[in-house]
């Protein structure tokens, strides 16, 4: 069955042009290890927890085989994951402008939104939930903003501007064109691995000017090695709203980009396959960059 359009994501097709990005065949896993009690965006999000459900020593109907299985519990927006377009709504007035007292609305199509109230049900989201997102097979580029600024890791709460994006592109000689996925490295993934609260509370990431700069160049997906892609504080999710609600462009968050950066692999074939979680606002993923 052919895949339908989903926001600005390209319809997946492995073209000769995409295959030409593969020069060494090296495969980089960009996902983080899920760990018990790992940091989450806030108290409302449940962290990763795992409990044995079936032990090898338990009786089994397939004796002499001895299976084991477990139950895993966590919120979708924990660890490396991709946001569905229904993840964030924007409260708007009748003219479509942001309004704290307005109606929450979701992306529907370029220049169009729908009321979020029409989407939510007791069994999840019905509008552009994650099971509708196609597999992603596209050109990816790494923008190593930390290296561009001459550091291994940007300080907490650093705001990455359009000027910083352009400087990183110039340093690397990286071109962003139509259909490009852009992965932004701050160097901060070690803070997640260490459980440092600064990773959550003082996030280094994009500001609105940086997001606008990337979209103007043709970006159709953005990812970062932080928890929200954008800088926080402030906590108004201006970048989320601009990308998800107004542009139809989704995010991949909590990426591990250090191995790519160490190899100076700035262009690659990016492959991401979201799980078919009916009604969900996102999916855990382990993106692959193939150089």
Explain what you see.
The protein is α+β, with helices and mostly antiparallel strands and 291 residues long. The chain has a single domain (26-54, 67-290), classed as Glucose Oxidase, domain 1 (3-Layer(bba) Sandwich), CATH 3.50.30.50. It is 18% helix and 26% strand. The chain is built from 8 helices and 18 strands. It has helices spanning 16-19, 145-148, 162-172, 189-194, 198-201, 208-216, 238-247, 258-262, and strands at residues 27-29, 49-54, 69-73, 81-83, 90-92, 103-109, 112-115, 120-121, 124-125, 136-144, 159-160, 180-185, 205-206, 219-224, 250-253, 267-272, 282-284, 288-290. A 9-stranded mixed sheet has the order 1-18-16-10-12-14-15-4-17. It has a 3-stranded antiparallel sheet with strand order 5-6-7. Strand 6 (103-109) and strand 7 form a beta hairpin. It is globular, with a radius of gyration of 20 Å.
Task: Describe the secondary-structure layout.
Layout (H helix, E strand, L loop, with lengths): L15 H4 L7 E3 L19 E6 L14 E5 L7 E3 L6 E3 L10 E7 L2 E4 L4 E2 L2 E2 L10 E9 H4 L10 E2 L1 H11 L7 E6 L3 H6 L3 H4 L3 E2 L1 H9 L2 E6 L13 H10 L2 E4 L4 H5 L4 E6 L9 E3 L3 E3 L1
Parallel strand pairs: 10-12, 11-13, 12-14, 14-15
Antiparallel strand pairs: 1-18, 2-3, 4-15, 4-17, 5-6, 6-7, 8-9, 10-16, 16-18
């Amino acid at each position: 069955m052919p895949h339908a359009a989903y926001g600005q994501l390209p319809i997946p097709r492995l073209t000769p042009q995409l295959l030409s990005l593969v020069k060494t065949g090296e495969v980089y896993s960009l996902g983080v290890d899920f760990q018990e009690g790992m940091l989450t965006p806030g108290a409302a999000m449940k962290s990763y927890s795992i409990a044995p459900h079936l032990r090898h020593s338990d009786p089994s109907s397939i004796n002499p085989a001895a299976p084991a299985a477990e139950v895993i519990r966590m919120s979708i927006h924990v660890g490396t994951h991709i946001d569905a377009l229904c993840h964030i709504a924007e409260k708007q007035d009748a003219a479509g402008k942001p309004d704290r007292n307005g109606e929450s609305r979701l992306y529907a199509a370029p220049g169009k939104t729908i009321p979020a109230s029409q989407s939510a049900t007791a069994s999840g989201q019905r509008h552009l939930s994650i099971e509708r997102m196609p597999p992603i097979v596209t050109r990816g580029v790494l923008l190593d903003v930390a290296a561009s600024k001459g550091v291994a890791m940007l300080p907490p709460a650093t705001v990455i501007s359009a000027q910083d994006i352009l400087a990183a592109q110039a340093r690397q000689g990286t071109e962003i064109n139509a259909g490009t996925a852009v992965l932004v490295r701050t160097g901060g993934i070690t803070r997640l691995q260490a459980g440092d609260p600064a990773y959550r509370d003082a996030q280094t990431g994009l500001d609105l000017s940086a997001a606008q700069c990337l979209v103007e160049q043709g970006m159709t997906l953005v990812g970062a090695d932080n928890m929200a892609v954008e800088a926080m504080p402030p906590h108004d999710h201006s970048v989320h709203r601009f990308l998800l609600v107004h542009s139809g462009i989704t995010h991949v968050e909590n990426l591990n980009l250090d191995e790519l950066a160490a190899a100076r692999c700035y262009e690659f074939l990016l492959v991401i396959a979201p799980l078919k979680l009916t009604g969900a606002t996102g999916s855990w993923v382990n993106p692959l960059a193939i150089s």
